Amino acid sequence: MLVQRVVGDCPGCRGVKKFGNVFVRCDHVVRGCLRCNYSQQIPLPTLRQKILYLDQCFFSHAFRAKEKRFTEAAERLREVAALQLMVAPYSSIHEDETNQGRGHEEQLMKFIRAISFGYKFEADYDVEREQLCKAFESFLSSGSSAFQLHEGDAVDRKIHHWDEYMYITIPGYHGDVDRIRTARQESVEDLVEAFAHWRAMPRTFEQQVSLEMEEQARQYLRAHVEHSARLAVGDTDALRTLGNFFRSEHYNQIPYLWISAGIYACVNDEVQKGAYAYREKAIEKFRGLYGDIKHVATYAPYCDALFMERKMTAYLSDPRINLEDRYGVSSSLLK
Hints:
By secondary structure, the protein is α/β, with parallel strands linked by helices. It folds into two domains: 5-43; 63-335, no CATH class. The chain has 13 helices and seven strands. The chain has helices at residues 56-64, 68-82, 92-99, 105-116, 124-140, 177-200, 205-230, 236-246, 249-252, 255-272, 279-299, 310-317, 323-327, and strands at residues 5-8, 19-25, 28-33, 39-43, 50-54, 86-87, 305-307. The protein has a four-stranded antiparallel beta sheet, with no helix packed on it.
């Protein structure tokens, strides 16, 4: 047998230092001998790893290895992850952020996968679709408007299985990098351009959250109408039902929409108090923050703890959002 790790002498043939772990599967380890066919299957205890969210800022600083606090934290994470006490999955957004770089993209992505031990969140668009569909299904069945989180919507159930000795990474396609970079820049510029309107039309936190939710609903409805037109079909009743859903509490409680709307409402508060008055500085500031908002809104509710940069930490700790109270995400790494 191909023994991955020798643990001692073989109970079968008595071969010295010939017996060890062959492979790990889910909840058991198979041991065998390098010399004979003797083997054992040993059950492993039930595993429940803590899920840690790390933003791109952490991975980038740890990779550059210029600040001791990041390199030490990354090394400690490797140790804890190797003991399978905690896992820090990477995501499709980490991949997008990494591929937006201009150098060392492959090395950085390899570094991220190493810290994550190959574990990955489900793609952001899949998580968003699952949340939206589940809220809509609950609305149609007159179920509770309180959104019920299911960890399996964001991470594979295998995340709580015992690790094997190796994992395989298959490179994926990450789209037109220049086009994505341009679209992101335009989105940030559009956001900053909106600040003048925000200053001229003061709103409360609750009003801004409602406005953000309504705007997203309009985008969904527009997409539905365009899709129906391409298929040359139309259903007035379906459109009416969608409209009612987008005005319901079921829709308002969708996590990724509620979190992102809350963060933008916090930004709106800052703008009304005079922040981000200089356009170019504001664009530079939000160039990094823009992706973080999407990232934390999508994955934070499924995690046990977070590590974010300082500005995002302040938003998430705002009493009006308070991620810890709402979703049980530990704030120990937010401080």
